[in-house]
Amino acid sequence: GSYQAAVVADGPLGYWPLAETNGPVALDPVGGHNGTYVGGVTLARPGVPLAGFGSPSFSALFDGTSGYVDIPVGPFNIVNAVTAMIWVNVPAAPHFSGILGHGDSSWRLSANASGNPGASDGGNGDATSPTSIVGSGWHMVAYTYTGVANASSNGTLYVDGVVVAHDTVPA
């Protein structure tokens, strides 16, 4: 019945709940690819308020400027099919910010200056939601790339389980 059990059952390469209450380590209970909190990060913040996340549910608050989690490269330089997802709460409109990913030339999820989530896998522009998620609570943002280069709409962005945009990832 827990969210963590459902995630683990899907066999991910890594999973970072970001539920630590102190210390510099962001634990990966699945793959052992522990990360390090860097910069402006506040731990033990209120997390996703859904029953499957347990009680209490904790999260990490990033300052939007210097805070991030440094994850070891490990198996994450993915050049084929990939799915990445994250629960995110964006309280204020950011500048363009990365949310999760391996960088601009690889897979990533982001939020633009208006708070619209987007994603790409090194493609010709992002798949970007037409709707901002700023100030509207917790949202699940996910992106999938089929692994079939140059196929039309081979990248798909989901917000809260609903398809909101596509992009085309080149070779």
Characterization of the model:
The chain is built from one helix and 13 strands, in the order αβββββββββββββ. The protein is mainly beta. It has a four-stranded antiparallel sheet, with no helix packed on it. Strand 1 and strand 2 form a beta hairpin. The longest helix is centred in the first third of the chain and has 7 residues. The radius of gyration is 15 Å and the shape is globular. The N and C termini lie far apart (40 Å).
Which features characterize this protein?
single chain; 171 residues; mainly beta; four-stranded antiparallel sheet; 1 helix; 4% helix
The outline comes out as globular
Strand line-up of the largest beta sheet: 6-11-12-13
**What's the β-strand tally?**
13
* Arithmetic mean of pLDDT: 92
Sum this structure up briefly:
With 171 residues, the chain is mainly β. Helices cover 4% and strands 37% of the residues.
